[in-house]
Amino acid sequence: MSKERARRRAVRLAEAERERAARARKVARRQRRRTLLRRVTPRLPVRRTGRLFARRSRGERAGVVALSGAAMIVIWLLVDDLALRLGLIALLLLVLPAVVVIALGRRT
């Protein structure tokens, strides 16, 4: 009986060793594939864009400039007093960043 158990244990151990070796080969193959894919696939660019206003697209910035310029022209044409013109334009420039954040906010 003891010889039979020893033989079965040896078979079990040999089978476990084969499975362990197969698993190790599979893990090594997967690791090689991952490293190859990492070398081949392009990496994501660094999030720094080098632009001053990286949060807004070029179209959004152009829209902000165009609308604020139009508002300045309207103020200049409709208001007669020079001091009031300059005060309203200064107020527009002071409030403009808050309006841009509220209108073009990206938080959802």
Describe the structure.
By secondary structure, the protein is mainly alpha-helical. 77% of the residues lie in helices and 0% in strands. It has helices at residues 2-40, 58-78, 82-104. The radius of gyration is 35 Å and the shape is rod-shaped. The mean pLDDT is 87.
Please outline what is shown here.
The chain is an all-alpha fold. Helix content is 77%, strand content 0%. The longest helix is centred in the N-terminal third of the chain and has 39 residues, at 2-40.
Report how far apart the termini are. Answer: 72 Å
- The tally of helices reads 3
- Biggest sheet layout: none
Helix proportion range = over 70%
Write the layout of secondary structure elements.
Elements: H1 2-40, H2 58-78, H3 82-104
Helix pairs in contact: 2-3
Features of this protein?
77% helix
